[in-house]
């Protein structure tokens, strides 16, 4: 595997909200509270922005396959992959970065998600964290993150394998909490096994 800085491979966008914050109807606006520890998006208890405000936004509009990462606050580094969109229009607020591969012949978004979810990715993000609990990471911090870059074919195989592990967590969501926690631990152990070798 070769190594590459994210700044060479991805585009980064941040979202925003109108003056006065979110509202009770309109276009869903995702924040850090919607991203789960295991990389899912919780589509319940959403906040919204007016549709005309969304239409005026030049950045921060969510697309299928995007990678989302919390950029500030106590949950900085929490990451999710947009594998489906239950709404036609979705945005992120000012606490979220959207990461997108500039060329999926070099880097697959789903592979990027798993790298950032792994200990390898999280350690680098936490290294850049600055400030108190309300601190965070900057765009340039994200651009400095180093990731292992196998061939696209290998990225596809790894993403497919890791997706199956992750799906096991989703299927068993309704288990008792302690069982779900054990399954999530197993998922992170698999991630460490896959990307820990790269770090070594």
Rounded Rg: 17 Å
- End-to-end separation in angstroms reads 12 Å
**How much of the polypeptide forms β-strand, as a percent range?**
15-25%
Strand order of the largest sheet: 2-8-5-6
The helix content is 25-40%
Low-confidence stretches: none
- Structural category: alpha+beta
Major β-sheet profile: 4 strands, antiparallel
Outline: globular
Give me the number of helical elements: 6
- Mean pLDDT, rounded to whole units? 89
Q: From N to C, what is the helix and strand string?
A: EEEEHEEEEHHHEHH
Number of strands: 9
In short:
The chain is of the alpha+beta class and 200 residues long.
Report on this model:
This protein is α+β, with helices and mostly antiparallel strands and 200 residues long. It has 6 helices and 9 strands. It has helices at 51-56, 109-117, 119-128, 139-144, 152-171, 177-199, and strands at residues 2-5, 10-14, 27-30, 47-49, 67-70, 79-81, 91-92, 96-101, 146-149. The strands form 3 sheets. A 4-stranded antiparallel beta sheet has the order 2-8-5-6, covered by helices on one side. Strand 5 and strand 6 (79-81) form a beta hairpin. The longest helix is centred in the last third of the chain and has 23 residues, at 177-199. 33% of the residues are buried.
């Amino acid at each position: 595997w070769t190594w590459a800085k994210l700044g060479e491979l991805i585009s980064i966008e941040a979202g925003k909200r109108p003056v006065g914050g979110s509202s009770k109807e309109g276009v869903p606006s995702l924040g850090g509270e919607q991203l789960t520890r295991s990389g899912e998006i919780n589509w319940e208890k959403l906040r919204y922005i007016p549709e005309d405000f969304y239409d005026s936004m030049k950045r921060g509009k969510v697309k299928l396959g995007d990678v989302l990462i919390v950029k500030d606050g106590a949950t900085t580094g929490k990451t999710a992959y947009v594998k489906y969109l239950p709404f036609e229009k979705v945005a992120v607020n000012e606490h979220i970065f959207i990461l997108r591969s500039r060329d999926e012949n070099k880097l697959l978004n789903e592979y990027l998600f798993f790298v950032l979810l792994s200990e390898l990715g999280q350690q680098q993000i936490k290294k850049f964290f600055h400030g108190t609990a309300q601190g965070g990471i900057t765009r340039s911090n994200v651009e400095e993150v180093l990731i292992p870059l196998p061939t696209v074919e290998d990225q596809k195989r790894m993403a497919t394998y890791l997706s199956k592990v992750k799906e096991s967590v989703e299927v068993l969501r309704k288990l008792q909490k302690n069982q779900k926690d054990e399954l999530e631990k197993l998922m992170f152990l698999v991630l460490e096994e896959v990307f820990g070798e790269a770090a070594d």
